[in-house]
């Protein structure tokens, strides 16, 4: 079993109840959330040894984040604690044509203001086999970008497998660097790349395009995206292309394609007819993928498990995938949501 | 920008939580609601100068109504405050085949018991360009009917544009007059008529009928309704026919047709696959229409904006359209509910 | 109007809010629930004289159960009260592919530990015309199985009509008997049998099978199930086969077939597009059936009323069918969930 | 055991959460409440046969009131159901120097608009031994005043014991009669009078006054109030004077004096240091008194039980005394609130 | 009636429910709060023309603040809206010996980062008669300190009365200036100074000290504080010394002394035996004082009204004084919290 | 720093909201609770290495208990997981004279049905320095009694310090043994005894008695209790006598006496004027004591820290002491609940 390490920011998520607009009624539902932390919690729930690395303020909010991560079994011993503020995001849940909206309040967070030399990556990554990061972490500040690259470089040098979920939050790129330039630098260290069709272009500047609807009848078109990327970054070992077709804020379908240099496996397409919480569904896919690769290697089983993990996450409130391996496997095996008692 | 004035009753809406039957659990969710007030709040949210005219009791409930209207920027300076009671309605949310149900408790409200000579319409409507009323206000009492007609008459005389949303609440017509007779009197003052196919017959006694499904493939049939009305009331300038096809308590489609004497524009049809709150969706359409007429005149843009405003309202709890012009425009422009962050 | 008597266990149902996983947040929604109690409450709501028979602990939980049953008008005078514990079940609501899950905690309940000689069935059933029981009650303990058989035997002997809803909760069968053997013994006393296709095989060991999808185009295939059962138990007078096609945790269709020895009536099929609470929908069907038989006898009206009762229950939180005869009849008559005000 | 009958109005009570001002947040807690209904529920909880008589609307609110009363075992078979509205009251809980405030919305309720000839008192009171009414019922409308007097007259004639809790809600007396005149008429039929010092003057026009603080060191002064009343209405058999000393909205002490013509018994004084809900505490005293008179007759035990019932009510949310005889007796016996497990 | 202007920061207050520790359960209660905004809302509730001046972000949180202020009638037309973040504070309510705790998250707020030249004070204060500021505003950033001094200087020059509530939040003074130095500069422009005994020393470096208990028997000792301040700043016209004696997190007493150069008036002392929310009680005193000075001038009535406003605020959840003039006056007149109905 | 081990049962605590009676409204607040688990969580929060030993069911409730303990840093690696049920208790919060009431539902729990030979104490206690148990664990079943004695015996033999909090829950002693006999056997292994005056007699059969009020003026009388116990069990090293004087369900005072053979230290007495949650306050005292003994040895500081920990617990909802060392120390140092910001 690989021992995982994740680097990223964790935030307090504050959601208005049900489908209410933000601050419509004077109550907010709080939870802890963040792309890499979501992956860490899911893998830890699957029984994997997972360490989450971040910077937290020494106040009640920072302490609470440690306590919550510990609850799910995540190793918090590498987290730095120092003065500063805890990042936040506000969210209101969409319905039908009204989209789910996120309002970030994370600009001056502890993690954004951390300095590269506060991290001794050789020490932090000791005893770890796999390093994971998302495309959000280098976006939050110039310094966080340097920390991300440092971590990836050391991870690669120490022989860890490096995975990266390339997702772009344009609103976060405020410090003056070009995302494409940064992401292309990161690619030098990546073994496993996860991204969707849009982000291949937006994050990496790739030229190939594909229609989302191709996943239904021409999934082989998705191979072109991988081919272009494999050509530029020949050291990359696996490329996972995720596909999400949105019917409305309540319904969408999810699928993914796992590519190695020689092969591709297309997951089944899962139609979700009642989205409870869309946030964190990409992270659930990543966690499912990492778990799948460990268990069933490069295969349709693996990519289908990843997509099923993502599908199940759509039914669970909060960012975290609170589901067992068995529940996800049941969906891979064709379960239809019939009640169990 | 026209300055609007609305006359109507505002009530305390008391809803059981989620899909619970009324008083199933000992909690009620309260908000402020009423057809014309809903239109006023929406226009005011769009940045328009809007005055709401009603009668409120001088107790905590009446004061709260003023405070809530003021919150959205509605001009409350023309509201009369006097002893009496505040109207209420109870509501439980339906699902699938079980309909949403409203239990009114508004019979002896301040507004129902107001007297025509308590209103100096010349003074109240001074400085206003547009007067709006719904078919509910003349239903609540004989005296309210006279007040409604007085207001429309003075508005017309002073050169205001008069719009009327003709909707029938049969249960409210208790004071012995025939709704058709009253509504036909009102029509003498109407410039912009909004109504659905059923109410053309039920409120105005018109003879033309059309199938709701025609909106999909024979929308021109809807013209016949307008033609009949234009013939009887030649001073009417615009007739908006709204179409709502109900699949279940959770799903319906909305569309509308804008008619002038010489032209008709059919909106796109919007399918709503998860209704959060159906109440106030007609008022949202009216607000969108008035705003659209101001901005894009008689056009497909205008009627599509009106229908999009109604569609977005279906996703928002409470009677009020808590949405921005930009959010509605995004739906006109084809947004599909994909999350924004 | 027949006077009904039901025997079964009633429990405290503890549900996590909304779609949350069990204990995800520190709140549980409580209600009272149990298969036969659900039927009793529904019939009592329909204005029928209905007695519920069980054993309850003499603590606050037991007292609360009596109070809640009395609220709906159920006759609680035959309930035994003694030391012991009150059964519980925990439930989390599923969505899309994640199923609704029940965690039982009823093993050592008062009812499970009751002894056959604590019940004087001759006395208890005095003045009653109809006895109903489900397949769950004999599952909870060996002693409960004997009590169930005693009750059915005496009911039959005293001339009551005996109905039985055969449903299997495999997880409950812990005391070492074979369910099929027990259920076949029970069949000797049954006049009206209610069951679904799977349970004909699993509970009674029947050999005929039918595809759920046959209900759409070959409903006559369902007759074969009834034929096989009528052959083995010639004293049975009516067999109701229920059909539930699950699209996801949020959507399913319901239908049923009413068989007498000479005839069969197929209900309309009702598609439910937003399941609020699936638990108790079978009990609602039973209550609708018993009410229907009393009113419209063996007929399509009866089985359609039963299925409509079940359909409406899908829209109501909690186990109980909190709906009026009129609301159910409206669905039989084609109501589509359009709001009422 | 006497069989009781109570006449009065029952309302929906809508309370803002915790100590919030009315409508401060958009939630109201609902319950069922009303002076005589409170007494009925308490006596019924004590196991007494108690019928509540009122007029209810035939809508969901009226039906809910019947269901809630039935839950506590109250006989609802004498309640009239007809078109109309259900009375309401809004309440916010005070703290320290800010008082608890009630906003009534009961003016045109079913009960207020009921007519004297809708009640056949001979029939209604058949089989009853005790009739109870409060001073609120004759206040709500002229017609309700006549109904109250009719009921008392017939009760007296049929030999029932008549008790009356004289409490004045000045704000309700809107129909033009003088309360003192009405209350003095009622006194002709009263056997057991319950009132506080202020109301002896305000309701009956008596002249004797006493300081509330006398209850501590000169309780005999309270006898003067009773003496004056006994002199005017020699048929009255018992007079209970209640004493409430308010330290703040959170703290008060309660005591009472039971007078017969020849004797007086003073209860112990109970200091309440954390008032959870003050409403209904007088009704709890009445219920405790009636129960006490049945069990321990004219005695210190009786009046102490009545005061203990009132004291316990201060700790329970809602109008109803949800407490057992044993819990009240434990306080009479000196219990101090130490936890029980 | 003077027209008021307040300058300060407004924040989102996020409170854990009841007495729960911060984030103990996943719910936070939100409201809008800030020292000068609290004063503005209270004065506006009293019917006074009050403008609040601040800087708000152009996101949902900033828009919500405007909407909430408008609800209470505060003039928001002078508020600057620009990119940035909205300040927050988290709070948990203490009980007995556990104190109420505030965790600020306001460091990089819009208001803290505003620049002095963004404010045209001559224009902003046009038409205003009274300017109010607290000691918190100059603490949040160096730039906010300059803005505060600018505003006071212009206010003074334009002839407005300037009031200042000197309260020290040590934790906020992070930008390197000495609070005493800043506060002494502010004093050059102050007409009405409000402060407590500790802050006279801590904010202004005064030497006189007084025992809080002196307020009971030697209130004249409080004069010495005023005398020392009048001597240093002879242009100050009124000095209000507030006194708060804390018995526990639930109980305290409040009082205050109003000093002019020639006279002093001591308020009555109000003991609060159940604190619902202590935050904003100082701001309520200020609002009561300003209102009192307008109505009853320099007098015991004025300072007693101010203290009563503060006392009532202790009973109301949230920072705002949601109370009417009549309710406060009733406490001045000796009301004891007896319920009103 | 000693490494602690606790043996006991952990349960799901289900509480009605606020001061509501059990099941008054259909919501229960859930948390995890149990005497020794409470001590473990508190010590773990203080940064101590603490293992909790129990038996848990392999269902969602058991898994949740592990997750919750892990959240607070408790070592859960020694917990046995097997089929069975999770114990529960229901609680309603008292006020004034109405006591807090607990309804246990723990009879057939996993822990109660565990067998002595399922525990290898030599292995379980390896590496631990201190073993703690309460008087509740041997009460839950005969088998649990044997497990308790086994654990204490091995702990003693391995040289661990053994502490025992002797508290009697009479209602639990159902298996036929005499508590005094069992507790006297346990005393053979105890180093540190914690108990209150009543339990010295009820659990150990001691003869000395003392008045609770002696703690105020004759605390030396408490020495007699310790002397009697030291005489019978000369190996006991420390005896802590706890004192709780109940004024009402909302107010009480706490104090304690620490006795060694040669010395006694009396804590200060802390008056709690607003009890938020009384449950777990004894466990907080034990945790404070163990922590204090480690830090300040036998001293007034130690016993005062223990009592302060208990006092602070009274202000926190739930069984757990969610408070820091600093917060408790602040109370030892005289903090009065003044707000902190």
What would you note in describing this structure?
The structure is a homohexamer of 341-residue chains. With 341 residues, the first copy, chain A, is of the alpha/beta class. Chain A is 33% helix and 23% strand. In chain A, strands 1, 4, 9, 10, 11, 12, 13, 14 and 15 form a 9-stranded mixed β-sheet that branches. In chain A, helix 1 crosses helix 9 (281-296), helix 9 packs antiparallel against helix 10 and helix 10 (300-313) packs across helix 11 (325-332). The two termini of chain A are 33 Å apart. Chain A binds chain B through residues 18-21, 24, 89, 94-102, 104, 169, 171, 246-251, 274, 278-279, and chain B through 18, 270, 272-276, 308, 311-312, 314-318, 322-323, 327, 331, 335-341. Strand 3 (27-33) of chain C pairs antiparallel with strand 3 of chain F.
Topology:
6 copies of one chain form a homohexamer.
Chain A: E1 4-7, E2 11-15, E3 27-33, H1 35-45, E4 50-53, E5 55-57, H2 60-71, E6 80-82, E7 88-92, E8 101-105, H3 121-124, E9 130-134, H4 142-157, E10 161-166, H5 179-187, E11 192-196, H6 197-204, H7 214-217, H8 222-232, E12 238-248, E13 251-259, E14 264-266, E15 270-272, H9 281-296, H10 300-313, H11 325-332
Parallel strand pairs in A: 1-4, 1-9, 2-7, 5-6, 9-10, 10-11, 11-12
Antiparallel strand pairs in A: 2-3, 7-8, 12-13, 13-14, 13-15
Helix pairs in contact in A: 1-9, 9-10, 10-11
């Amino acid at each position: 079993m690989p021992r995982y390490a994740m680097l990223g920011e964790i935030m307090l998520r504050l959601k208005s109840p049900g489908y209410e607009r933000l601050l419509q009624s004077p109550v907010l539902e709080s939870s802890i959330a963040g792309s890499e932390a979501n992956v860490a919690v899911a893998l830890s729930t699957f029984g994997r040894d997972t360490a989450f690395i971040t910077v937290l303020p020494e106040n009640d909010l920072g302490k609470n984040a440690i306590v919550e991560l510990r609850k799910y079994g995540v190793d918090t011993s590498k987290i730095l604690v120092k003065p500063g503020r805890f990042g936040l995001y506000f969210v209101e849940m969409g319905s039908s044509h009204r989209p789910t909206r996120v309002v970030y309040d994370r600009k001056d967070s502890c993690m954004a203001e951390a300095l590269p030399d506060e991290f001794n990556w050789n020490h932090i990554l000791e005893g770890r086999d796999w390093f994971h990061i998302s495309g959000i972490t280098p976006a939050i500040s110039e310094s966080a970008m340097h920390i991300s690259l440092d971590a990836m470089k050391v991870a690669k040098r120490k022989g860890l497998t490096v995975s990266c979920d390339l997702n772009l939050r344009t609103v976060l790129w405020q410090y003056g660097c070009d995302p494409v330039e940064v992401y292309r630098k990161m690619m030098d260290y990546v073994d496993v790349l996860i991204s969707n069709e849009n982000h291949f272009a937006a994050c990496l500047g790739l030229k190939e395009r594909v229609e989302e609807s191709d996943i239904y009848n021409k999934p082989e078109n998705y191979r072109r995206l991988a081919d272009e990327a494999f050509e530029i970054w020949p050291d990359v070992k696996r490329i996972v292309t995720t596909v999400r077709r949105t019917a409305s804020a309540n319904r969408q379908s999810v699928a993914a394609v796992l590519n190695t240099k020689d092969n591709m496996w297309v997951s089944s397409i899962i139609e979700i007819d009642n989205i409870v919480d869309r946030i964190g569904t990409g992270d659930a896919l990543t966690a499912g993928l990492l778990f799948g690769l460990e268990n069933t290697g490069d295969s349709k089983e693996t990519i289908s498990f990843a997509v099923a993990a993502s599908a199940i996450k759509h039914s669970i409130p909060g960012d975290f995938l609170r589901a067992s391996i068995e529940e996800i496997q049941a969906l891979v095996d064709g379960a239809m949501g019939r009640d169990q008692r």
